[in-house]
Amino acid sequence: MSDAVLFDARSDGIAIITINRPERRNCLALDVRAGLFEAWDRFERDPDLRVAILTGAGPKAFCAGGDLEEMVRTGMTVPPRDMFALPYDTIELSKPTIAAVNGAAFAGGWMIAQACDLCVASTTATFAVTEVKVGRSSPWAAPLIHMIPQRIMMELLLTGKPITAQRAYEIGLVNRLAEPQDLLDAAIALATEITAGAPLSVRAARDTVMLATEMGRSAALEAARHASTHCYESSDAQEGPRAFSEKRTPRWTGR
């Protein structure tokens, strides 16, 4: 790993990925983009890692978005499809992810926070889709309609005006708020709640949410039943009820 993106593989199955360019407000410069591709791939390939937390270094910015200097220098028009490492989009992931937003999440910073499954934010964090301020566009924001109401989304995209972490929590963009000094601990606590569950059950649950988001009711029910078969037929599906009846903690194997 380069020092632009730090990777901490913890012994509890949680990976912490940190964008480490605070002097540039953790913008998505070339070295950061390369580091994120490598970090997400490392997370997905490690069978001992079950949840990843993405955060930014320093107190000011989670990620300020794309590298505008690079856009000017290269005369960039439409960004290449594979330019940014977006979980579940340009990066194939099968495990849950959490954005721990420590400061400003603007434009591309909002984009990568939005791409994660869950979001914990510092009370001092701010969020904005600022593309209208610099003549760019935000097609990546389309899935936002499944997270927040249409008129709120419309205002955010049309004005580019920042919102506070509290407002982001109120509209459903953020799952939990934490004081700045407690942010990472709060994200780890949420990740720990996930890792306490059976691995195949967690995967089936995540698949169910995404299928329900993308399909109509009947199609989602059918697809979710299919996605759950492997879970039901696993050893863990027998271990869970057995542990409950024996009044002990389950010993998950993920098989």
Describe this structure in words.
This is Enoyl-CoA hydratase-related protein. InterPro entries: ClpP/crotonase-like_dom_sf, Enoyl-CoA_hydra/iso, Enoyl-CoA_hydra_C. Keywords: Lipid metabolism, Lyase. This protein is of the alpha/beta class and 255 residues long. It has 2 domains: 191 residues, 2-enoyl-CoA Hydratase, Chain A, domain 1, CATH 3.90.226; 47 residues. Helix content is 40%, strand content 16%. It is built from 9 helices and 10 strands. The chain has a 6-stranded mixed beta sheet, sandwiched between helices. A 4-stranded mixed beta sheet has the order 4-6-8-9. Helix 7 runs antiparallel to helix 8. The protein is globular. The two termini are 30 Å apart. The mean pLDDT is 94.
Write the layout of secondary structure elements.
Blueprint: E1 5-9, E2 14-19, H1 30-45, E3 51-56, E4 61-63, H2 68-74, E5 97-101, E6 104-106, H3 108-115, E7 118-122, E8 126-128, H4 150-159, E9 163-164, H5 165-170, E10 176-178, H6 183-195, H7 199-214, H8 217-232, H9 236-245
Parallel strand pairs: 2-3, 3-5, 4-6, 5-7, 6-8, 7-10
Antiparallel strand pairs: 1-2, 8-9
Helix pairs in contact: 7-8
Task: Please sum up the structure shown.
The chain is built from nine helices and ten strands. With 255 residues, it is α/β, with parallel strands linked by helices.
Name some characteristics of this structure.
lyase, Enoyl-CoA_hydra/iso, 255 residues, 6-stranded mixed beta sheet, 10 strands, 2 domains, lipid metabolism, ClpP/crotonase-like_dom_sf, 2-enoyl-CoA Hydratase, Chain A, domain 1, Enoyl-CoA_hydra_C, single chain, 4-stranded mixed beta sheet
